[in-house]
Specification:
This protein is an all-alpha fold. The chain has 6 helices and no strands. The radius of gyration is 20 Å and the shape is elongated. It has a domain of 97 residues.
Length: 141
């Protein structure tokens, strides 16, 4: 029999406060980084989380491509938003194609997209469960 893997604590209506299982990444006093949090959301909410994140990623890439092809000076805009000059210059090499430039800017905004996914997906799933589109979660044995 394989040893059981500890999972982070998720409280639902069927669990009581005494049944908390600690998250191993928080035992050292460290908060998990955004990619670890995103993996947890993908595992917990499955296709909804993946679909939502892919959707906002495609919209983000499309918006940045549209901005670059429209002639918006993205370098000046990124400096105004507070991005570090060395980071911007490393991502936006001179003479790159329109798509590569849009993709580089899209990658700079990855933390924003991840944060939106982390916040939005639990609300979406709760809403879908309330409206009856999704089944309620099964209680842990």
């Amino acid at each position: 029999m394989a040893p059981r893997k500890q999972s982070s604590f998720v409280q639902d209506a069927s669990s009581s406060p005494g049944n908390e299982v600690p998250d191993p990444s928080k035992e050292n006093g460290k908060k998990p980084n955004k990619s670890q949090q995103l993996k947890k959301v993908f595992k917990e909410y499955g296709a909804v989380a993946v679909g939502f994140h892919v959707g906002i990623s495609l919209m983000s890439l499309g918006m940045f491509y549209l901005a670059v092809t429209s002639g918006v000076d993205m370098t000046a805009l990124l400096f105004k938003l507070g991005f570090d000059e060395a980071l911007v210059q490393s991502k936006l090499a001179a003479g790159t194609s329109t798509f590569v430039l849009a993709y580089a800017i899209h990658k700079l905004f990855a933390p924003v997209r991840i944060s939106i996914t982390l916040v939005s997906v639990p609300f979406l799933v709760r809403y879908f469960r309330r409206t009856g589109l999704f089944k309620p979660p099964t209680p842990n044995p």
